[in-house]
Specification:
heterodimer, A: 234 residues, alpha+beta, Ubiquitin-like (UB roll), Alpha-Beta Plaits, five-stranded mixed sheet, three-stranded antiparallel sheet, 10 strands, 16% strand, globular, disordered C terminus, B: 182 residues, alpha/beta, Rossmann fold, five-stranded parallel sheet, two-stranded antiparallel sheet, 6 helices, 7 strands, 31% helix
């Protein structure tokens, strides 16, 4: 058992063990912090920046999924400043690729769409990039549509950390970054992919989906992967 | 917002740019509430009204569709000049949505596909009657200021009613609780 730390989140006194993150301590105490790249049971990488919070005494915002609790820490999870940043982050996810909710397999179950709704995002102020990106439909059962990928890397992590195959990776930098299978070869010819479908299950958008699914058709939800839960906190 | 001149009924208009008419269908889905709206306002222009020229002095205009052609652009500029409260109605007007799916490959590729590759007789990209496409299909606010954004493909009849009745009464549109894209 790790040492106990006490901290304050949004005015509530909270106790957590020293190895816990601010996000985990908040959720355990019923305090909601929005996330996209976090998935309980996978490692955290602080990629999406949606879980940013304010720390008293620190001018910069921190990603709560990769920040350990500290004794006496005072955390704010909701403020106008945080909302403005979160809205901008979600806006940039939408504009960096070609997200068309109306014709997407994930319509109604998409976490990006849900984040926009929760944040009250009703239009975009920045200019869209409209990149011409690829769709890889070479796999027998699944499709990768880069138009809908937000580079959260949940698929990369579930494949490497749970399935142990490490078929997926991110190639390139910045706006040129792309999800690739087997060092950039077609998914259908992958020699490492076990076709387990975990990547499809954890994708927060419609970037990875099962062939034959139509627009807005509901998919099996997360409990399909019951072992993707951190039981050490239970 | 709303009618300035005492006693006069507010003037409501709709316009259909690059969209599928689904937002107008959702407007009609207000059913008997349409009577309520029309009891409070005059519908002076739109797909449901036989007026050719967009009139002056409109209080509220609902815009369906993205701005995709020279004709859309001419219309939306005129509509903006003559409207007090401009409402982008639905995902095409708000984000360019499905019409914007051509943006990554460009207008030329779309025209070639439609009028040359798929043509069985007289392959030719039209240069008259059909309005010229703009290089990109963009949301309304990329060209003119928009006052209210109503997302959805289409927005629900309940949401449209809520927004229209507030605006006609001169109040600002209430925040949509479950408002989302798609």
């Amino acid at each position: 058992m790790s040492e106990v730390r006490t901290l304050v989140i949004d005015g509530h006194d909270v106790a957590a063990t020293a190895d816990q993150t601010v996000l985990s301590a908040a959720r355990e105490n019923g305090i909601h912090i929005p996330t996209l790249c976090h998935l309980q049971g996978l490692s955290d990488i602080g990629a999406c920046r949606l879980c940013m919070v304010e720390l008293e005494g620190s001018p910069r915002l921190v990603a709560s999924c990769v920040t350990r609790v500290e004794e006496g820490m005072r955390v704010t999870t909701v403020s106008e400043r945080l909302n403005a940043y979160r809205r901008r982050v979600v806006e940039m996810f939408f504009l960096e690729r070609n997200h068309v909710c109306a014709v997407c397999v994930a319509n109604g179950s998409c976490e990006l769409q849900g984040a926009a709704r929760d944040l009250g995002l009703d239009h975009f102020e920045l200019a869209p990039l409209h990149p011409e990106v690829a769709v890889d439909a070479t796999h027998e059962r699944f499709v990768l549509d880069q138009n809908r990928c937000i580079l959260c890397s949940r698929c990369v992590r579930v494949c490497a950390e749970v399935e142990g195959a490490h078929t997926w990776d991110i190639q390139g930098r910045g706006a040129d970054a792309r999800l690739v299978s087997d060092l950039g070869t077609p998914w259908g010819s992958s020699t490492t992919c076990t076709s387990c479908g975990k990547c499809v299950q954890v994708c927060p958008t419609g970037a990875l989906f099962e062939k034959g699914r139509s627009v807005a058709e509901p998919k099996a939800r997360r409990p399909y992967l019951p072992y993707l839960v951190d039981h050490s906190r239970a | 917002m709303g009618a300035d001149h005492a006693g006069a009924r507010p003037r409501l208009a709709t316009i259909w740019l690059d969209g599928c008419s689904g937002c107008h269908m959702s407007l009609l889905d207000m059913d008997e509430r349409l009577i309520e709206v029309l009891a409070r306002a005059d519908l002076v222009y739109g797909a449901l009204v036989d007026t050719k020229e967009f009139p002056e002095g409109v209080d509220v205009t609902l815009v369906e569709g993205a701005v995709s052609s020279q004709d859309d652009l001419r219309k939306i500029r005129q509509v903006r000049e003559r409207t007090k409260v401009l409402v982008a109605l639905g995902d095409c007007a708000v984000t360019s949505n499905v019409p914007g799916m051509r943006n990554p490959i460009g207008a030329r590729a779309v025209l070639e596909r439609a009028y040359l590759e798929n043509a069985t007789v007289n392959p030719k990209i039209p240069d008259q009657v059909v309005p010229a496409l703009l290089a990109e299909s963009l949301p309304v606010h990329a060209w003119v200021p928009v006052d209210v954004f109503v997302t959805g493909c289409p927005p629900s009849a309940d949401r449209i009613f809520e927004v229209v009745s507030s605006l006609l009464e001169g109040r600002s549109a209430p925040a949509g609780q479950e408002q989302r894209f798609g």
